[in-house]
Amino acid sequence: MTLYALWRLKMSRHFPSFIQAFLDYNKNLGVSQKFLLWSAISGVAGCLERRTWVVYNGSQVIYPNLFVMLIADSGIANKSTAGRAIMEIMYETEALNFMSTQMSGASLIKQMSQAGENTVFQHEGVNYKNSSLYSYSSEAKVTIGDSKGLNGVQELLTDFYDCGDPNIWSNKKGWNKDTLSGGNITVYNPCLNLLYCSTPTWLVEAVGKSGIAGGFASRVLFVTEKERFKGTNGWLDDDEIKGTTDQETRTKLAEDLKQITKLGGRFRTTKGFKEKYNEILEKRNQAIDADPKGEMASYYSRKMWHCMKLAQVLAADQSNELVLTPEHLESAKDLLEALEPDMYSCFAVTGENKNLISFTRTWEVIRTKSIWSKHDLVKATFKHATSAQLDEHLKNLHAMKKVGFIPELMAYRVLDKSPL
User: Fold this and answer.
1) I want to staple 129 with a disulfide (CB 3.0 to 4.6 A). Which of 77, 188, 342, 375 is the partner?
2) E-strand spans in 326-393?
């Protein structure tokens, strides 16, 4: 028997990594690879629900559920196309509960409670209600609405991200809330995964300062694309793509994802995990100490939890064995740190700094040309900045060495066209 056959016998999987196979399958889709990657990560987390976990220091239970937001201006990175690609395969597992597209506090509680009534998780001979939901939105503004809509569900989102109180499996106590009609509803063993697509503008309008203060934003992994995705593939004939996007491959992807939905139990750690965790923790602490009141402080406070969640996802992606290695934790850290430089801009936006939006939009116009007269700049940016704002933006861009002033031409030269 070949090594591959032995691996298949042990794993009952078609691919060594669902995530990598998913990326390969969709390589000709013409969308941002970053968005495809995080859609796949979210899909694996959604299939795990709260049926796997890791125990921190003998007391705190950490589940692998994630809140992921794909952030880009409309039409530049095909974020909803990436989300739809994973959703179509998740639907084929027939083992998950998906939330309706309209988000409200009442509907979220009702649907989560119904999920618990219809779904059971069996562990060590005991049947538990499994109130897990996966919520996908191709446009967060439509699903949640404005700041009023988000404020109405923000506390619930935070509770269900944390998997309720208690956050261990229980048939005795659940998350409980009184209803407006005078009744009472209990959700046993809740768990919520989110994959939402949005624009930076919606973050300003909806998340706002309350999102930071309430801890909602610190629970979200903002995956941002600033540049328009330029696909390299034109039209491909069937014989050019057969073997990568055929129905057989798609079926195998769905079967592997279904295998992941069957995993259950506690992850164990291997030698070296403790040392790797403490190493990442020390660097995290240094980042907080360097700017304890900075925009990213709330995210950093949860970074280790994000690492532990992602490590479980990566382990389950590659194996049916519930084992976490130092390599899984290191890879989780690397994934987060690849997001962090652009997450700063998301957190700045959530601070309701509308001048920042004006600054960003103005720069996106300015960097399209090498030289601008002041008259042309005013005409090109009037939708994004007042005259006073434009003057302030130009002063800041000059200080950042993005532009330089040419006195003899009374014009501005663009020195660095890279995104902000």
Assistant:
1) 188
2) 371-373
